[in-house]
Write a structure and sequence with these properties.
The protein contains 13 helices and 8 strands. It has helices at 14-18, 58-61, 64-79, 93-106, 127-135, 158-167, 171-175, 188-193, 204-211, 215-218, 249-259, 275-282, 294-305; strands at 8-11, 26-31, 80-90, 109-118, 146-154, 231-233, 265-268, 286-291. The radius of gyration is 22 Å and the shape is globular.
Length: 309
Amino acid sequence: MIDNFVNKIIHGDAIEEMKKLPPKSVNLICIDPPYNIGKDEWDKLGFIKKGYGGFSEATVIDTHYYDWMEEIFIELSRVLKDNGSFFMFHNNFRILAELDKRIQQSSNFLFKNLIIWNKRFENSSKKGFLDGFIVRGGMNSFNKMCEYIVFYTFDNAYKLKQRREELGVKQTTISKEILSKTGKMTGWYSNIETGKNYPTHETIKPITKHLGLTHEDLVPKFYNQKTHHCVWNYDLDSKKLGHLTPKPVKLIENIILHTTDPNDIVLDCFGGSGTTALASRNLDRKFILIEKEEKYCDLSHQRLSQKGV
């Protein structure tokens, strides 16, 4: 029962603890995994650094980190509902590219967006400080003041053809349910079955009629807040409270608002200082946090117990 895990901070290994979760049981996954760039002891998994900002070929050749993350992706794809969403933070593009490759080969996650978390913007409380890095001399490249967020959902289009063939239903049988203004058949259903388009609340009706598949079976939740595109401006979290790389609560809340309903379950298997739990609680969502470091579990409990955090 998933209820045994909700609104809890679980101290343990991410893979082992996720194996205890029922399949298709969470609505949103939002993770900030170790980047493997040597930020702290928990961030060194087959990492070798060579000078400031550079990485040796061992970063690519040593596969321990990638193998481990691939196991994570397999479990994440198992526990996420078909209409759920998956977001992951990172800040090294070469490492992220390999992680995306592992995601493609180990799951049916469908890449949706590369989002840029911009930390230097006009109304940022840190703009003056960050401007100092822009104007300094001796630079031979652009200064990176952002992190990456990759956004995935599931590719559910395969269900249509699979179900249609199981039931012996022809494409034309469904297509003729919605005709053009001139009374002719169009390619509306074919475009949905091939994944070109999602069904709308109108086109799902004949699909449900003939195949029994619903909007929830096929279409990931997404509620356009009409506030964001693929560059997000958020200040760094100034309340680190003992963790080196916390994410802003408001940023996580934005992800939650776009992809979940109240009482939906949000999973973070790299719980850190508890930001995902705070954001979920603020928006009347349930959460499951997994964190292997006991000190960060304690920190998460502390933050959740404080009013107005």
